[in-house]
């Protein structure tokens, strides 16, 4: 037994007994609280959320939730009912958002974790900055409802303002096809970027273009405010081959010859009257189309102004496939045009009626090559040259 000393002290006239127990042994502890079994209590999970509560942050900032002394069971980040996608690490101690946030919005973050000491839940809110400059897609070509396009058709995307951070914006652009092929974007200028596959699109399929721009930083103070989705219908493989030397045009559909047309090409007395060789795409059509000689005034030699029927444009330098009843005598025999592909009215109307934007017209036999940026002459560049215009390709090449 432990010895007990009893002391009696008078306090306010009352005798108080103080009992002092002298322990027989001591473990030297600092007095840490213990559970009934004598073990320290297990710590509850500690959850940390970034951005911090009440802060205002850039829309392209990541949301990061971490847990110490346990693992995350659930993380929800939302604004206006829209859930932000994210992913856990393997140990489920960290969750990171996978997409940009919407500018000028309030986000609520809820996180639950569980550890040996039990569960823990934390809720927080933060705001995203409102952009000084709004960025969105102003136009996608092709984008006509119900339109079927050819296998050479590029996807041309125009933004509402010049893009500074092209790599960030390009990373937000996605192209998915039912029959996938490799492709790449090329920036033509600060507002226009064009997608072209390595080879012609496989025929008869749907291609989906998506611009996930919301929250993407396009430059100082500039953020995407709207996403865009477009579905493109690729039709049959209409590929025409024009041989200027033999004065013929062979039109194939999915590899089958549909029509052989006698034609007359540019007379080649000057460069501008020389038909360009190379891979052209059909761009637009008109019936009739008024054609005026370039860089010439009335009274000048070779000046002309005339209306032509069933005209299908194949470049921006004035080249069309069109009806030419005045030169039927030359079709199949001689080249007498100002650079266009002249055809018999019946043949020209048939070609016009079967036209799709993005159909392929290959021209051979002249010493003037189609420039890659003349109309839709994008197929004049090899794929390796084409993709050098991609901001992501240039960034990867600079790191190599």
TrEMBL record:
Residues 26-54 are annotated as: Disordered. CDD domains: LDT_IgD_like_2, YkuD_like. GO terms for cellular component: extracellular region. Pathway: Cell wall biogenesis; peptidoglycan biosynthesis. Keywords: Acyltransferase, Cell shape, Cell wall biogenesis/degradation, Peptidoglycan synthesis, Signal, Transferase. The keyword Signal applies. Residues 238-364 form the L,D-TPase catalytic domain. The keyword Transcription regulation does not apply. Pfam families: Big_10 (PF17964), YkuD (PF03734). Gene3D superfamilies: 2.60.40.3710, 2.60.40.3780, L,D-transpeptidase catalytic domain-like (2.40.440.10). Residues 1-26 form the signal peptide. GO terms for molecular function: acyltransferase activity; peptidoglycan L,D-transpeptidase activity. The active site is at residues 322, 340. This is ErfK/YbiS/YcfS/YnhG family protein.
């Amino acid at each position: 037994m432990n010895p007990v000393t009893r002391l009696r002290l008078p306090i306010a006239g009352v005798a108080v007994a103080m009992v002092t127990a002298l322990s027989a042994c001591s473990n030297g502890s600092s007095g840490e609280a213990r559970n009934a079994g004598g073990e320290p209590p297990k710590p509850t999970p500690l959850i940390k959320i970034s951005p911090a509560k009440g802060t205002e942050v850039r829309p392209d900032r990541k949301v990061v939730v971490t847990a110490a002394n346990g693992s995350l069971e659930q993380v929800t980040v939302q604004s206006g009912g829209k859930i932000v996608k994210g992913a856990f690490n393997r140990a489920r101690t960290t969750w990171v958002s996978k997409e940009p946030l919407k500018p000028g919005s309030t986000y609520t973050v809820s996180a639950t974790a569980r550890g040996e000491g039990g569960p823990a839940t934390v809720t927080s809110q933060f705001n995203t900055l409102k952009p000084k400059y709004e960025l969105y897609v102003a136009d996608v070509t092709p984008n006509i409802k119900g339109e079927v396009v050819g296998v050479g058709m590029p996807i041309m995307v125009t933004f509402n303002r010049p893009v500074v951070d092209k790599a960030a914006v390009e990373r937000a652009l996605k192209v998915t096809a039912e029959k996938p092929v490799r492709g790449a974007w090329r920036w033509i200028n600060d507002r226009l970027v064009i997608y072209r596959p390595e080879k012609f699109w496989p025929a008869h399929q749907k291609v989906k273009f998506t611009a996930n721009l919301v929250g993407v930083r396009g430059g100082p103070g500039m953020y995407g405010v709207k996403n865009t989705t477009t579905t493109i219908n690729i039709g049959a493989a209409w590929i025409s081959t024009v041989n200027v030397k033999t004065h013929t045009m062979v039109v194939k559909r999915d590899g089958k010859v549909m029509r052989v047309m006698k034609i007359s090409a540019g007379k080649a007395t000057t460069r501008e009257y020389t038909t360009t060789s190379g891979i052209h795409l059909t761009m637009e059509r008109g019936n009739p189309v008024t054609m005026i000689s370039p860089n010439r005034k009335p009274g000048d030699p070779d000046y002309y102004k005339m209306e032509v029927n069933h005209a299908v444009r194949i470049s921006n330098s004035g080249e069309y496939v069109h009806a030419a009843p005045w030169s039927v005598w030359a079709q199949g025999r001689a080249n007498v045009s100002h650079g266009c592909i002249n055809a018999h009215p019946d043949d020209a109307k048939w070609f016009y009626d079967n036209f799709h934007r993005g159909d392929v017209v290959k021209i051979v036999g002249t010493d003037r090559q189609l420039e890659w940026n003349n109309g839709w002459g994008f197929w004049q560049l090899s794929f390796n040259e084409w993709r050098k215009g991609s901001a992501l390709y240039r960034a990867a090449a600079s790191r190599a």
